[in-house]
User: What shape does this take?
Amino acid sequence: MTLSDAARRPAVSSVPRPRDEGAALGFRLTLPAQILVLFIAVFPLLMQLYLSLTDWAPLTGTAWPRAWEYWNAGANYVDLLSDRRLWDALARTGLIILICVPVQFLLGLGLALLFVDDFPGKRLAYSILIMPMMVVPAVAGYMFFMLFQSGGPINGLLGSLIGRDLAIAWLSDPVLALVAVMLADIWQWTPLMFLILLAGLVGVPADQMKAAALLGASPWQRFVTIVLPRMRPIIAIALAIRVIEIFKIFDTLYIMTGGGPGSATETISVYIYEVTTQDLVWGYVAAIGLAILIVLSVIAAFAVRRLGESRA
Amino acid sequence: MSAIRLENLVKRYGSFTALRTMDLLIEDGEFMALLGPSGCGKSTTMNMIAGMERPSEGRILFGDRDMTGVPMGRRGVGFVFQNFAIFTHMTVRQNLSYGLRMAKLPQAETERRTLAIAEFLRLTPFLDRRADGLSVNILQRVAIGRSAVMEPAIFLLDEPLSNVDAAFRAVMRAELKQLQRQFRQTMVYVTHDQLEAMTMADRIAVMDHGVLQQVGRPIEVYNDPVNIFVATFIGAPGMNLLKGRPVQTDRGLAVDLGPLGISPPLGSAQACALRAASGEVIYGFRPEQASLAPPGEGIPGSVTFEERIGARSIVHLGEGSTAFRAVFEKDVPLAMGDVAHVLPHPDAVRLFDASTGRVLKG
Assistant: This one.
């Protein structure tokens, strides 16, 4: 009998197999955390699903657990399909995503490429660049609200460039208000894109870049053949984060325009907020919320799968 | 045409000088090994030839074209990295054809040359495998093939065999030599392994502390080292070096080795060299160029340790400053503690100036 046999034998005969024991212990140790997750994530989700199938509202005077009294068997979801204001808000949100995400991506990538090599003052420039991200969105909202006033600094700056006084009413013009809101988002969130992409760029092996250069690849060829393929997962994640975040765009925008003028800047979050606080039809709100959650989950799942693909 | 000429090359990093005034001519089609311990400046030299680093001073010429300011992508040199720098997200085929594709060669030619180099390096079975799943031995060949396919006139290899196993290293040494014979490139090969340098190179440039010590054919560097660094660095084990003073004996000029007694009388060439010496000298001989002698002849030493490698044995004798070694190709009747008398072959003795470390010539 070898030493290892002797060591193994008593364990097999007298106590449960270590794997089972480990699993049971693991379950016990993670139980508090699991309960916590249950309450923060699963319970609200189930509650939302439940309410979304009713006409319940706080003004009915009934406590929410008895919302089944207002059961409407999915009528909310049918309403949702023909809710013109909702679809407009969705389209508007989509437009902001389609413009802001590519702009933020290209700006962020360009800046990140500048920061791969050293240059004097790099640390200072880096700190300044990522600062917008750290401004509280509400504060950023007030800041841009002031900047875009018709007598504000942005008109002043543009006016001095073209040499005459300007009084563009940015925030009360339907198109310009949307532009202003998008500029604010680009200002605040390009740094995040920059930061993520820079992390990806730094991770591209320097040796491979040198090898490609020695084999005669131009900077653009190196970017396309070495950098981009290696950054694919990071790019997917950066884009997914920004798409999801803009989908939920609210605070800065609401302070700047309140969704107006009219409903010119009413995004999906603004619409939900209005319906929740003014119409008070919470069963319907729950249905919208759940539908959006599903859309966002699909986007996130797509990004995660891209990450998995490139690892394989 | 593709000779490499280094003129007064200097490389400084801040206050640290990695390379001081290097002058070297590497002939067209020559296989030159840059040999030296870590940090001797050999890789720095190589990187400057490739254009990955700019010299602080001096010039680099390929043929008579000054390449000093030419960026690395336009020098047309092949370069094999120590860690291979394979494009791990590509297949072997994509790796091999990379340079050709970047140069936008016609597809048929790209295909033909890729297949030819894959055949030459026995990579054909792996062409469609992704590079990140392959063994080091295969990656090594991909790294060489990726540069060789460009048919560069100058081929630089930075310790290409240091990451592969010993058996494969022997195979690659032969293949690299064959590759060079076939394509007739000028090859510069950086290594700290003298066996690689000795077996492959036409000439060896031995470097230490950023200074070029000696350039010559392998046998020249081995037989006639210019200083004690080259004498000890080349050879396995290196040359025995014993301190002594010139002394006149009745059998001719010799070296008084202090506690080891008087050396055997010197041959005429070394005697002539010794006359030029002033003060202390270093008496050197190669461990493998010596034989056992009866007591009274040769240099005495008690056996402290014996390494046996098959029929060959390395015997360590003496201790401290009087330690030396002898290598025998056949069994020798020695045991630990025995006193052996080792007689260097008269032609194999080399003398060095003890203060400068330089070889003494008659």
The CA atoms of residues 60 and 225 of chain A lie 62 Å apart. The interface with chain B takes residues 205, 207-208, 210-218, 221, 225-226, 229-230 of chain A (CB under 8 Å).
